[in-house]
Specification:
mainly alpha; 7 helices; 0% strand
Length: 188
């Protein structure tokens, strides 16, 4: 039997272990809540993982076609992007799928063909590379949001202190792009 068929047969165990690996990067109290709370409104992280991780595994088992799992990958990466994880931990959770799948298949007493497993692992690595691209885009987006929030807060403080010129009092200064601010923080 092929590695892919073995992983498909043990899909539930692989999914459960992979979710555990993804949750292990969170604080123990948070991870315990994410594992145990079934309500998707109270626990969107746990619900998202339970919904999207099986889709990701199916995508890998079907050859790694991003059209098949793109939305699921985006959802899981976004969770990891805002969780405060290092990039290594955020992406490492995806790379762990290869190890988890091999361990679950071997625990069931099935032999793993080395060449087939290497092909499976290459697909997992492609998944991790896609995850890395999404993670970088998410972090850039978060950084831009922080810049906008900071700029809006500074504008509000300047307006309250009466330190804005007449033309800037309507909020135009807060909506200027970051390129309009010099290195000293002054608008040009």
């Amino acid at each position: 039997m092929s590695v892919l068929d073995s992983v498909r047969r043990h899909k539930a165990a692989v999914v459960d272990r992979w979710i555990e690996v993804l949750l292990a990067d969170h604080a123990e109290v948070s991870a315990r809540f994410f594992r145990s709370e079934p309500d998707p409104f109270r626990n969107p992280i746990g619900a998202t993982l339970r919904r999207e991780v099986p889709v990701l595994l199916d995508g890998v088992l079907d050859g790694g076609d991003p059209e098949r799992f793109g939305g699921a990958l985006d959802a899981v990466v976004r969770l990891r992007a805002v969780a405060g994880l290092s990039a290594g931990h955020a992406i490492g959770g995806f790379l762990a799928l290869g190890r988890v799948a091999r361990e679950e298949v071997e625990a069931a007493g099935e032999a793993v063909d080395r060449d087939e497993f290497l092909a499976f692992k290459a697909t997992v690595e492609d998944l991790a590379l896609r995850a890395c691209d999404i993670l970088v885009a998410c972090r850039e987006q978060l950084a831009e949001l922080r810049v906008r929030e900071t700029r809006a807060a500074v504008f509000t403080l300047l307006r309250q202190a009466g330190m804005l010129a007449d033309g800037e009092a309507d909020g135009a200064a807060a909506s200027r792009p970051a390129a309009d601010v010099d290195k000293g923080g002054m608008q040009t």
